[in-house]
Amino acid sequence: MGKDVIIACDFSSKKETMAFLEKFGQRRPYVKIGMELYYAEGPAIVRELKERGHKVFLDLKLHDIPNTVKKAMRVLSGMDIDMCNVHAGGTIAMMEAALEGLRREDGTRPLLIAVTQLTSTSQEQMEDDLLIEEDMEKVVGHYAYNTKLAGLDGVVCSPLEAEKVHGICGDDFLTVTPGVRFADDAKGDQSRVTTPAKAKELGSDYIVVGRSITGAPDPLAAYERCVSEFL
Ligand SMILES: O=c1ccn([C@@H]2O[C@H](COP(=O)(O)O)[C@@H](O)[C@H]2O)c(=O)[nH]1
Questions:
Q1: What is this protein for, i.e. what is its function (predicted)?
Q2: What number is the ipTM of this complex?
Q3: Number of domains making up the chain
């Protein structure tokens, strides 16, 4: 299974995104398109990035009743994306519906993963705001188990939980992990963070890195630092 560094392109327009990616010359890093960029530019931004040779993770985190998610996933199945996602909190039934909607007539489909607990959520917030009074690792492990039962390919979790998830769901089950910072970076709104080197040690499959690359004085150097620590 290929490990990789995915850059979160959290930009508000195609113009900004392309100006950022120009800094990478002939390199074509795996990119993540989130809600901001997708809502601004629509499916055209996916086509543009794929035409340029990037792998694309479309991070829309669907979370709705099963029928609605299934129909939305059917639309996404027509797009040339490599990975997309839902919230595991939508239940096993919702994840099964998502998988059904995503499968194309020829049997192919992009990878489908589920968010366990957002990496911005702390233990305290989970207990106080969500009334989930269990240890974070246990909750993430449980949501990962549900995700595997539903037949999905893996989860979004913090690298801090990657080892636990692989212990429960197996080494082939993907751990796609935001919440990555260099040791001297600010956490910002993230809560469960660690470095690319630690993410590697804990067995994460993909690290998702946004501001530590996009906000760096030299984004290409920051990306290469991630690659050399993680791969
Ligand atoms: O639990 C989650 C799920 C998704 N994300 C997304 O990853 C990036 C992280 O960006 P940073 O700038 O490196 O914090 C961002 O696009 C989030 O929407 C996440 O952080 N946590």
A1: Catalyzes the decarboxylation of orotidine 5'-monophosphate (OMP) to uridine 5'-monophosphate (UMP).
A2: 1.00
A3: 1
**pTM exceeds 0.95:** yes
- CATH number assigned to the domain comprising residue 132: 3.20.20.70
Quickly count: other Cβ atoms within 10 Å of residue 72's Cβ. Answer: 19
How confident is the model at residue 2, as a pLDDT? 82
66 lines ligand 1 (CB under 6 A): no
pLDDT score of 57: 99
Say how many Å lie between the CA of residue 162 and the centre of ligand 1.
16
With a CB cutoff of 8 Å and minimum separation 6, the contacts of 161 are 116, 136, 137, 140, 141, 175, 192
Q: What contacts 49, CB < 8 A, 6 or more positions away?
A: 17, 31, 33, 56
Structural domain harbouring 46: 4-230
Residue 68 CA to ligand 1 center (angstroms) comes to 24
| Residue 64 annotated among the catalytic residues of the structure | yes
